[in-house]
Amino acid sequence: MLLVARPAFAQSDSVDVTFFYKPAGNPATVFLPGEFNNWGPNSNGAIASNAPSRMTFEAATSRWVKTVRLRVGGAVGGGGVAGAYQYKFNENGSSGGWLSDPLNPRRNANDNNNSILYVRNPTIHYLLPNSVSGLVSSTQPAISAYIFAARNSVIDTSALRLFIDNTEYRNLGAHYDAASKLFSFTLPSPLSGGVHQLKLVARTTAGAQNADSTTFTILQNPPQVVEALPAGAQDGINYVNAASATLVLHAPRKEFVYLIGSFNNWQIDANYFMKRTPDSSRYWITLNNLAPATQYLFQYLVNGSLRIADPYAEQVSDPFNDQFISSTTYPNLIRYPAGQTEEIASVLQTAQSPYTWQATDYQRPAQKDLVIYELLIRDFIAAHDYKTLIDTLSYLENLGVNAIELMPVNEFEGNISWGYNPSFYFAADKYYGPRQDLKRFIDECHKRGIAVILDMVLNHSFGQSPFVRLFSQGLYGPPTAENPWFNVTARHPFNVGYDMNHESQATKDLVDRVNAFWLAEYKVDGFRFDLSKGFTQRFSGDNVSLWGQYDASRIAIWKRIADKIWEVDSTAYVILEHFAENQEEKELAEYRRGMLLWGN
């Protein structure tokens, strides 16, 4: 018997497409998972080191490369996007290492931001510059693209045409390398600053034609205005009145910052070029003529490439997770502007209706009388929202509970999480409902004499945190030595995420402001601090025993934090997940009104 292997599709209907990925860091391996290889394949997001999606490192260009044979017309059976294949890159095969193609602007916002490649004959891939490849500083940029013909076809170089705005360029055959499939052409005349339209048309010798279009922005900054912050302004959103707000970003050593958002169609505009303070540590801008009580979305565009939400925002818009929050949980949730920007955005709203607190005569339980119920909202009730949680208070009260410890409720990465991967410290996580509902839950607890304690995670953050992203080696970390808030290397064992430097003044200011905010704005009764033993700069490496020994610097850090908390609320609870040697815990337990620990 003769067995003949039959291809999934005819060679004349297939294109060999090469993918390139140049990481910001130094991953040990990179993979190209997609619909063309069963997404890796992967198991719960992890990809085996010998998976067929593994890419090859090209030392000469510091890029990872892989060529894949793809069907003209896209995935068999249609795939997730008609006429195309979806794909991503993955660093180190980890479940958390999945990334959209940073050079491909086509992404499926409804499916994990997967990158999209439309396969035609010919296929045009990586048309650059484009809307996601970064701002262009040169007024005569190099235009490039990879052009792949089907297996039995040849590119007709005489038919190549390029359009920049209303200008057409022909006779471009000399700018196409048939061996590498790369087209590269430097514009002969300068362009003005701003947004430009780009279109490339390619054809085979048999007459099959395809075109690809995109936009790119040439950046020409206006003169930098140096001016002190307005009186009383602090980092974050400062509401001046119902029509004005001043935005302040702490970004030392950054070159320039633009404000982009729904108020300027997410375009780079000289009118939104932010002022810099005389010490070069902050950038700021005052917005006027805002519509009262209207929600605006915005980001800071730092150095022309990094888009971050305001680190102090009380609400954010998440392109990855908000789509999975139902209108029952969060009615009228503002929609993310898919296709106009990327990464998490922040919400600005003047003239917000304040919550009217009802439990004005509440007296919190004495520390010695606390009976605490630790509660993870999404596991405690199927509806996973504050409204439903209020209905359970009679049950908890009947148990004899007089304090509820909420596992982290500030914005964390993803929706389904214990919350120990914080991303935005001042924003209540939307998966549990609107922040006004959280206030009402706390108010209802106080009406019953039940204290509310927040589980607070200030030992570390992860890669979505703007505090990490502002000074990081890649898009999502790890932190660089310039980072004012984080250590490059964790100072202790059992660390997760990126370790905070609690001896840095920037971190001290952040910690104090986070704690004061939740005490004042939400009237919480105190905090249980996660991994409190990690608040130290004394390096213990992997030595768990050394980490637990008496640490005078750690004690000083915690006394300082507690002092600041008690300046805001003199009877607030300070609970530490500490597990250090008894002498240290005893000293903390006996300091002023006393911190609470497991061993005292």
What does this molecule look like?
It is a single chain. The protein is of the alpha+beta class and 600 residues long. The chain has 3 domains: 11-218, Immunoglobulin-like, CATH 2.60.40; 236-348, Immunoglobulin-like (Sandwich), CATH 2.60.40; 367-589, Alpha-Beta Barrel (TIM Barrel), CATH 3.20.20.80. Helices cover 13% and strands 27% of the residues. The protein has 9 helices and 35 strands. The strands form 10 sheets. Strands 20, 23, 24, 25 and 26 form a 5-stranded antiparallel beta sheet that branches. It has a 5-stranded parallel beta sheet with strand order 27-28-31-34-35. It has a 4-stranded antiparallel beta sheet with strand order 10-11-15-14, with no helix packed on it.
